[in-house]
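2024-03-11 09:14:02 INFO queue: dequeued item 3-phenylpropionate MFS transporter, len=380
2024-03-11 09:14:02 INFO validating residues
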Amino acid sequence: MNNQRWMSQNFFAFYMTWGIFLPYWTGFLVEAKGLTISQASLIMSCSLAIRGISTLFAFPYIARKWSSKRVLDLFAILSLLIMLLFIPASSFSSLLVVTLLFSFFFPALMPALDSVAGILLQHGQLHYGQSRSYGSLGFVVMVFIASVITGQFGDMAILWLLLGGLILLVLLNTRPAPAVLLEKPKGASANKFSVKKLLQAPNFLIVLIIAILLQGAHASYYNYGYIYLQELGVAKYYIGLIINIGVFFEILFFAKSDRLFGHWKPANLLLVAAIGSTLRWLMVSLVPTIPIFIVSQSLHAVSFALAHFAVILFFTQNLQKEQIPNAQGMYNAFAMGWSTAILTLFGGFLYEMEPRLAFLGMTVCTVPALFLALYLRKKA
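2024-03-11 09:14:37 INFO prediction written
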């Protein structure tokens, strides 16, 4: 199979499931399972912490022992099996336990896929942005489907949609994979893991900190955006459409990113991302209206997609092949996991005081990221 097509289809299948879990799961716990916002926030924060442990330790360890294809298969199958446990779970404690188990395996598919993409990219067998745009397209498709179905059948449908998406993901993983992904790590490369050495790589730590701040700043949007739009009076049928506006711009960015930004320095890309992210959260918080929220969605291409592309570009340009899974694990653990977990609790506290404060509070991350990006730009 064509490597570009294989990677595109895998991104599409995974982000279809992510398009259910990310924007809808807090709402599912509240509306379908009867938890309070505080209880749901605690569960999601704990799940992000577990996600960080998994992507920082479990994923890199397994990636050093097994082939990339086998790693993908393992995490996909275990995610599907654990998802079945959500059907009987109804109490806070049972939902907490099952969510923690699910969060140990399911989100690890993200760094696994990006590591695979990084390997193919280093071998000159992939245009990352083009394939990643299919992931965003899958996200859009499922968010739209979920918004329509939940409006018709209620929030319990979120569970069945995610279960169906995971079944599709497992089935797609039965296809033949590119040969380089079937190779098992050998010898010194398989055991070569040094956090100290990775942190000593030029500018790696600065890039990681900027990524932590920028990606973590999406915590309020990811966890409370669905509820916030309901607060603004948006019908459930239209919430998915509004969320999809941001992903639509994300798709446009990824589709053109290789050609337009592939030659840019990661430092310059991170600076633009920090500026756009700060502007986005200021718009949402200072002018709490539906039209401004819709307009701010265009900045998702900058606050998330551009920042993510810059990190992937930095990894592939500055790290060795055997370092990429470890770097991806750290990036996903700290930037996509633990920072978001902490800021979810912070955002939840602010949201209960005043909903728009949850978004304004995210600028405590984006402004320092802006100054760090300026420093990196001068240093690089």
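2024-03-11 09:14:37 INFO annotate: The domain at 3-379 is CATH 1.20.1250.20 (Growth Hormone; Chain: A;).
2024-03-11 09:14:38 INFO item closed
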